[in-house]
Every structure is written in C-alpha cells, then in structure tokens.
C-alpha cells in the first residue's frame, strides 16, 4: 500500500492477508483472493415471478385418499411436506370431495366448442369462388374493351387508306 492510504476491506486480502487467521475450512485467509470473496457473496438478483400451481381433480382425489389412509397426524404432515402442500389446502379439497365438486372438475371449463356447420364452410368456399370469378370477369371485360378500341383504330386506318 502507498503511504497515507487507508486499508480497505478487500485490500487486506489482496496484499497482506490476515496474519494467523484461519477460516472454518482450514484454509488460511492469506490464500483467499478478491475473486474468491466475490464468489462467496450470494446472488441477490430477484428470481422470476413464481408460477401458480394448478392441480387436476384426479391429483386432488388422490391426495385426499392418501390423507384418509393415514392413521396419525404425523403421517398426514409427512404427506403434505412430501407433496409441498398446506393443511388448509387439504381441508379445502376434502370439503370439495364431500360436496362432489371434485367430480365436476374433471370436465373442462368454459364454453362448449361449437361444431362447424358443413353448409357454412361450403358457403364460404362458394363466396371465395364468386370473388375469383368476378375478378376474372373484370379482367376479361378490360381485354374486350381494349380489343374493341384496337379494332376501331384499325378500321379507321383502313378507311383512311381506302380513301387515299
């Protein structure tokens, strides 16, 4: 260190170390470098947002049956720890099973998908075909108009030639 500078926290590890001090691992602190100190600091970055778990009715029924098979509260606690569930969740699922709500959960929720009407599909196809035919008709009419104009111009040229 230069004269007059204060010794910082990391400066002691880089140059002189702590004389006589030993770490709990048996490694003298003098062998500890700054890069190793930085690696010891835990990562403070915030993890991504947690995703809410969704349980199927089958899984809920399975857990309720398992809990009913348990003879002691210790066994229920072990089951809940193993599955990562709370006791309140188990109570809710038991109530749902008793009221028959778990049976209804096996079906998909939401509006019933409508089966497409075959005549509607046919109508859509026919409308597309009509649009194509209209476009083709417009092109044909333009060609006919152009041919009429060309024929008229050629007639005028022939009449002029015959007059001259």
From the structure above, extract its key features:
single chain; 164 residues; mainly alpha; 3 domains; 7 helices
- What is the number of independent domains? 3
Strand content: under 5%
Task: Give the rounded overall mean pLDDT.
Answer: 76
| First-to-last CA distance | 115 Å
- Largest sheet composition: none
Rg for CA atoms: 43 Å
The shape, in one word, is: rod-shaped
Structural class: mainly alpha
Secondary structure: number of strands: 0
Order of helices and strands: HHHHHHH
Give the helix tally. Answer: 7
3D structure, described in words:
It contains seven helices and no strands. It folds into three domains: about 10-40, no CATH class; about 55-105, no CATH class; about 115-164. α3 crosses α5. The longest helix has about 45 residues, at about 120-164. By secondary structure, the chain is mainly alpha-helical.
Describe, in short, the structure shown:
The chain has 164 residues and is mainly α. The chain has seven helices and no strands.
Write the layout of secondary structure elements.
Layout: H1 11-16, H2 34-40, H3 57-69, H4 73-83, H5 87-99, H6 101-104, H7 118-163
Helix pairs in contact: 3-5
